[in-house]
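MODEL INPUT / OUTPUT PAIR
PAIR INDEX: 1
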Amino acid sequence: YKKSMGSGKPRGIWAARKLRIHRREQKWALKKFKKANSGRRWKHDPLVGASHAAGIVVGKVAVEAKQPNSAVRKCVRVQLKKNNKRITAFVPKDGCLNFIDENDQVLISGFGRKGHSVGDLPGVRFKVVKVATVSINALFRQKKEKPHKQSSRYDKFEANLFVVTMKTYI
């Protein structure tokens, strides 16, 4: 039994192209397909698809938790090295903000919801993982110490110059 009218789709031996094109156009109505293929994630993701990114701390920020919670969460503003975008990153663990100073190099990762803010922190999508190449967890548990700031190349050059001049006098 074959319907003669109202089937709604082209049938027959030459209908494949029409069906294929129609399917290609209709896929964009699906949310998952559109999200995966529109390129939005490269435009709006500061990490540009990477899992982690390095940046420099611009300042310390306190973010108030959303209702019904009442707290001041410690965060930092970070300027990413790869594209100079500024983002807010959460500093985990109690008192770990003391390990972070301005102009420190930090490593940032996602906060766990694939680009969405987590819990009661509005607009915070990232967290700090490392400070000056040492993990926050190691600093918190006192397994390691944060390395002291290294002197600049110019200071090293001056020190070498001083050693050379001392050798000439001796």
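PAIR INDEX: 2
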Amino acid sequence: SSGINAEWPLRPGFKLGSDGMELPLLPRYEDEKYIVPEEIRPEKQLMRVEVLTWGVRQLKDYKMIAIDSPHADIEIGGETVTIEKIPSLKKHPNFAIPYVFFDVWLPIKEEYLPPINIRVMDNRAYGYTPLVAVATIKEYGKYRTVYNGVMEQAEEEEELEEAVGEEAEILKEIMAGGLFGGIDDD
């Protein structure tokens, strides 16, 4: 026997459009992708992401060639920031700007936070930039901090950007001369 009982015909688990039921509408389709309805999406808030970008160390050779001039991309929630390349990793392994920040819309609830992806590429001859290192940070919600509530005025943001810009310039000067420029290693 085939194992199918003729007395119990196979029935679908649901009926489409029968009994006057309305079918659910398909989500909107734009730019070759479906748009998730707002009522399903997690609630988001504009957040500032701050990253300390000191430099890179102990990178192994890529395709038998030493990594000499890397740059990094930091991506979170669809926003990507590129950290300037290091001109010579052997002479000075630090990035010129050790602190970057950017604003991005992120979910308020920690369980919905997207991962932070860090990609390091080497800048080689003829514009060739191979991917030489990757890191993913999945759980960073415990590092979220609220500074004086939400910054409500554009003036505060401008003051902060100016202060950070001045500090970045000072740090650039310090790094260019080395942290301990006048001290011998002997």
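PAIR 2 NOTE: The two ends are 91 Å apart (CA to CA).
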